[in-house]
Amino acid sequence: MTGRIVSRQELIRRQRRSGLIGRKGEQAAFRDALQQSPEEATQFLFHIHGTAGVGKSTLVRQLESLAREAHALTAYVDESAADVIEAMEAIGAQFAQQGVELKGFDKALANYRQRRHEVDASALSSRVTSGNVEADQDIEQQGPSPSSVIGSQLALAGLGMIPGVGAFTGVLDPSQIAAGADRFKALLSSRLRNHEDVELILSPVQVLTPVFLQGVTEVAGRRPWVVLFFDTYERTGPILDLWLRDILVSDRYGQLPANVLVVLAGQPRLNNQCWGDWLDLVTDLPLEVFSDAEARQLLVAKGITDETVIQIILELSERLPVLVSTLAETHPSSVADVGDPSGTAVERFLKWETNPAHRAAALVCALPQEVDEDTYRAIVDVEARDDFNWLRSMPFFINRAGRGHYHDVVRSAMLRLQRQQSPLRWKEQHNRLAEAFRQRRVQLEEDVPPDDGWWEDERWRSYRLQETYHKLCGDHRTALTHALRELLDARDYGISTFRRWIQSLARAGQDTDAPAVRKWGQELLNALEGPRPGITAITLLLSRGALDDSGKCLAYTLRAGEHRRGKDYDQALADYTNAIEIEPIARAFQRRGETYRLTKQPELALADFNRAIEIDPDNPRSIVSRGQIYRSMDRYEEALADFNHAIELTPENARTIANRGETYRTAGRLEEALNDFNRAIQINPEDAWIISNRGEAFNYLKRREEALVDFSRAIEIDPAYVWALACRGNIYKSMGRYEEALVDLSRAIEIDPAYVWALARRGNIYNSMGRYEEALVDLSRAIEIDPAYVWALNSRARIYKAMNRNQEAIADYTSSIESDPNRAWSLAGRGYLFRLMGQYAEALADCSRALEINSEYPFAIANRGTTYRVLGQYEEALLDLNHAIELDPENAWVNYEMAVALFATQSQGYERHVSRVVELCPFPHIEGNEHAASDMGNLFLAHFLISDWLKADQYLSGFLSTNPAIGEIAELLIAVDTLRQLVPSAQEYLPNFRRRLESARRR
Question: Is the bond into 964 cis (omega within 30 degrees of 0)?
Answer without folding.
Answer: no
